[in-house]
Amino acid sequence: MIDYRSDNTGRAAPEILEAMLRANTGTALGYGGDEWTARLQDRFSELFETSVRVFPVATGTAANGLSLAAIGPGWGNIYCSEAAHINTSEANAAGFLGGGLKLVPVAGTYGRIDPAALRETLAGLDPAALHRGKPSGVNITQASDLGAVYSIDDVSAITEAAKAHGLKVHMDGARFANAVARLGISPAEMSWRAGVDIMSFGATKNGGALCDAIVVFNPELAEPVGWNLRRAGQVWSKMRFASAQLMAYVEDGLWLRLAQASNAAAARIAAGIEGLPGLRLIAPVEANEIFLELPGPVMDALERDWFQFYRRGRTMARFVCRFDLPDAEADALVGTLKRCCAAEARAAE
């Protein structure tokens, strides 16, 4: 089996497991009162070049839902890409945890919000129209759920449009590391300097073990996040082990090295399959995901050859590269796609 189902199917990075073991000595106050969680605040403030509040959480879904719950009231509207994970894959956790928050899709390409479309959508709103809900926030998924990366200019344009209407901005950074590695910019430039108020900081998909985090840039959101975490059962009892993971994740640039490895694997595959007959890239390969339009028989053949991946509908296939994906496995996918696409082309003649 060669596994392309997701980047969360792979191993945890050894450095992260070792950090958990190092934290496993003596006693420490629970629920975030430990020294690891205190140091985590300082370390992430250094990473983002500003004072932040960091809240470890168990999952990215919890990070997204509870971040959005802090942004808007239960009658609020959150604007997002139609393909956004919060809109397609989390069973409306934002609405559940946010007491009824409504997600409103905005047009765009490759899973990204188009800034012009957002401006047009917001310009037509009447905040006093009680029947329609209160415009409250905007969600940006970076990298997008089709594997594309927002440029800094696009993030800034989206946040400017949001703030012109009094909306706050949440970034779903499940693959934030992949986007930062792709653009070669600082975490600060990608987030609060571009106008982001709060973000879900992903680790699990990029070599983490058991946690992600909420990073709060806008101080007024820290208190509601804290209360909502407690109510949702997302305050770790032995939080030192979660905080130790996150500390190790960003130590000495580990998180970016892991992301660079998975990005490079995806780029290797994309270069190898360029121009193959019967195959079309649905979105540019800018992070560690590859979305292909493939004939059904080609997907069947891949599965017979023991490749694991996810089908999205009748002709779409998603392949996700992990940080620990060997070059040999990337080359095996390229070789099999070449063979299967050539066979399908001959059969169609």
Short précis:
The chain is α/β, with parallel strands linked by helices.
Describe this protein's structure.
By secondary structure, this protein is an alpha/beta fold. The mean pLDDT is 94.
Layout: helices, strands, pairs:
Elements: E1 2-3, H1 14-22, H2 35-48, E2 53-57, H3 60-71, E3 76-81, H4 85-88, H5 93-97, E4 102-106, H6 115-123, E5 134-141, H7 152-164, E6 168-173, H8 176-183, H9 187-190, E7 198-201, E8 212-216, H10 222-231, H11 239-250, H12 254-273, E9 280-281, E10 289-293, H13 296-304, E11 307-308, E12 310-312, E13 316-320, H14 327-348
Parallel strand pairs: 1-11, 3-4, 3-5, 5-6, 6-7
Antiparallel strand pairs: 2-8, 7-8, 9-10, 10-13, 12-13
Helix pairs in contact: 1-11, 2-11, 3-10, 6-7, 8-12, 12-14, 13-14
Structural class: alpha/beta
Order of helices and strands: EHHEHEHHEHEHEHHEEHHHEEHEEEH
Mean pLDDT: 94
- What is the 3D shape? globular
Please tag this protein with its features.
349 residues, alpha/beta, 14 helices, 43% helix, globular
